Structure formats: C-alpha cells, structure tokens
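This section describes the prediction task in plain terms. A model, or a person checking by hand, is given the sequence of a single protein chain and must write out its three-dimensional structure as a string of tokens. No templates, partner chains or ligands are provided. The sample shown here is typical of the held-out split.
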Amino acid sequence: MTSLHRALVGFLLVVLAAVSGKPTGAASKSFTITNNCEYTVWPGILSSAGSAGMDATGFALAPGESRAMAVPSGWSGRLWGRTLCSTDAGRFSCVTGDCGSGKQDCAGGGAAPPTTLAEFTMDGSGGMDFYDVSLVDGYNLPVLVAPQGAAAGGNCAPTGCMADLNGACPADLRVASASGGAGAGVACKSACEAFGSAEYCCSGDHGNPSTCKPSAYSQFFKNACPRAYSYAYDDATSTFTCAGGDTTYAMTFCPSTTSVKAAGASPQAAGGLPLMNDTMVYLGADQLGAAAAARPPSSLLLAVAALVLAGALC
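The expected answer:
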C-alpha cells in the first residue's frame, strides 16, 4: 500500500469513527437537554450507586439553549432542573432543585424536593431502557422526555408533565419565593413532603401497594399530568420502556403547551405522542430538531465511506 493510500485509509477511519460516534458494534445512547423556559435553568444529574458517571453533573442552560450528552452503557440515574440560582459569598445555591454541593456541578448530590424528576435505567431487564417522569418528590418545572430513534418494542413513547402546576398548586403544598409577590408559587410539594405521614409517604403500615392508595393530593398531580408518577405505587401508567439500540432521549424544560404540528405531520401520524390534559401534543419542529441533531448519521453516508475505504485498500 502506498503512503498516499495509507494516509487516505487513516483519514477515512477517522471520518467513520467521528460520524458513527461509537466503536463498531456498540449501541449509542444520548440525552439532548433543552431549555425552552423564558429563564435560565440549571440541570442537575445524579448517577445511581454503581453506575458509570456522566461527563457533567450540573450546568447552566440559558433560554433556548440545548446540550447533548453521551450516556454510558447501563447508566441509571435521574435528571432535573434547578431554578432561581445564585452565588452568595462564593457558594452556589438554588431556590428549587438545589443539590447542596455549593457549585453548579452537583458532584453526587441529589435534588432537594420539591422537584420534577426524570428517571432512567438504560440497558435494564431484557436489554430495555426504562424511564419515567416523577412528581413523587413534588414539582418545580414542566418537563417532557421524548425518545428518538429507538428500535421497535416496549412502551416507547413521550412522557412528562407539561402543565404549569406552580400557579394551581393547593395552598398547603405551595412553595412561595421570598422575592415573589404574595402567594407567588415557585414549586409544589408532595403531600409526603408537606405532612410527613405514613399514609402519604407510603411507609410503615402503608408501605405496600395494597395499603398505600392515591390521595386527593396525588390525584391533583395525576389529573394534570396523567403519564407522570404521582405517588410511590403509580407504576402501571407511569413507567415507559424502549428497546435497546441507538436512542436519543430529548428532555425539554418548559415544552410548548400548545398543540404544534411539526412540518408534514398529521394528527393521524402522531398517534405515539402523549395525551396531556386530554389534549394531543405535537412536538414542535424545534424540539424534534434538537433530538435529530444527536441521532446517528444515515447508513447511506457510512456505506459510501466504507466503499471508498474498500477501494483504497485494493
């Protein structure tokens, strides 16, 4: 092989590695986290014990900003949004979702309730990804999780809580901002957080599905966000699964609450999208585009590069 051929082969191998984004034969998963709110959100990330860590555990997203992150194989953990954050005397803290680290990186700290949580277990039982959006620890932000590019199989569909519950939160669950007006809500507690009783926390004598039932408070969350967890044993309507493979999970804070059709989409073609507040939701082109940007390249591109590579080896 001439030096020219060797150089060409080396270049094409770099191109193939770059566009595929993964070693040959390995599945690639990623998060695309987008802030659609009119204010800055600071996402926080906590990996479960024994799970590989993510590249970052906290950062800022300005309005309209997105960030793509690779997800380690077999990763499990939770993501959430922090709001009303500031730095005082060198210590970073947030009014909602604070992780107690004193800086933007959560560094192993979890979210202080009340916080809307997105929970994931990748490559779990049967090779499936398991995910949900949970209001068990309360609510602070509207969140949508939408899988993109997943293989067929499982209950693979968008989920989340698109409603703004802070204004509608019952008075005995409402968290008000010290800087806001009278009664201005910035988060909504769970009944467990507000009252601490076994009945609401599904603990003690209420620590199993037979004795822990939905309450009027959990039903407030469930009625507004029927696909989100509203209390500890709300599994039947709140856990979603996608078959293993190259999947991007698009997580959007403050997703559009108006029904917006992506270009070329029709109500009939959108049957896999969730019903939120009894309204069919269509992902807007901006949300679909953010997820598509992190998808693997087309097989045609890879095939062309492979053919050129094969010719260079001849």
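For orientation: Residues 11-27, 257-314 have pLDDT under 50 and may be disordered.
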